[in-house]
Write a structure and sequence with these properties.
- The protein contains 5 helices and no strands.
- It has about 160 residues and is mainly α.
- Helix 4 runs antiparallel to helix 5.
- The termini are far apart.
Length: about 160
């Protein structure tokens, strides 16, 4: 009789283990679903934190860029006060600017006489900018000669 009881006990343990295994297998989809939901929540939180950091970094960089541009502008203004710097800057700039960046509106549509009339009152830098542009495009002697005259009249004007 000991063998029968031991066999029954073994059979019950096997059935119990099978039932426990079946319960565990049935629970896997629920556990996987919960794990996936938790993963999605963490990924969303991480994405939000990343976006927040990116916005903060962008704001910092924007402020730094503005500060650098402001400081560079001040350095440029101070440098232009040094005799000859404004002329040199204008000459270099004039070689690369487009007509819409000149201090005279609609420059390309103007005759030499009309340009000459508008040169009075321009700074050395602006005169040099116009001269550089003029040399690169039409090289009108009337315009270039008048610019030279104006530059000779005001050698210390630097703005």
């Amino acid at each position: 009789m000991g063998l029968v009881k031991e066999t029954q006990r073994s059979l019950h343990a096997t059935v119990g283990a099978a039932a426990w295994t079946m319960d565990a297998i049935r629970a896997i989809p629920d556990q996987m679903g919960r794990a996936w939901q938790q993963r999605t929540q963490w990924m969303n939180r991480a994405g939000e934190a990343y976006d927040d950091l990116a916005e903060r970094g962008q704001a910092i960089m924007g402020g730094a860029r503005q500060e650098v541009q402001h400081q560079a502008g001040q350095v440029g203004e101070q440098a232009r006060r040094i005799p000859g710097v404004a002329r040199a800057e204008g000459a270099m700039t004039g070689r690369v600017v487009d007509a819409d960046q000149l201090p005279i509106a609609d420059y390309d549509s103007l005759t030499a006489g009309e340009v000459v009339q508008r040169l009075q009152g321009l700074s050395q830098r602006e005169l040099q900018k116009v001269a550089g542009y003029e040399k690169r495009h039409r090289a009108r002697a009337t315009v270039l000669n008048r610019i030279d005259e104006l530059l000779a009249k005001s050698p210390t004007t630097t703005t």
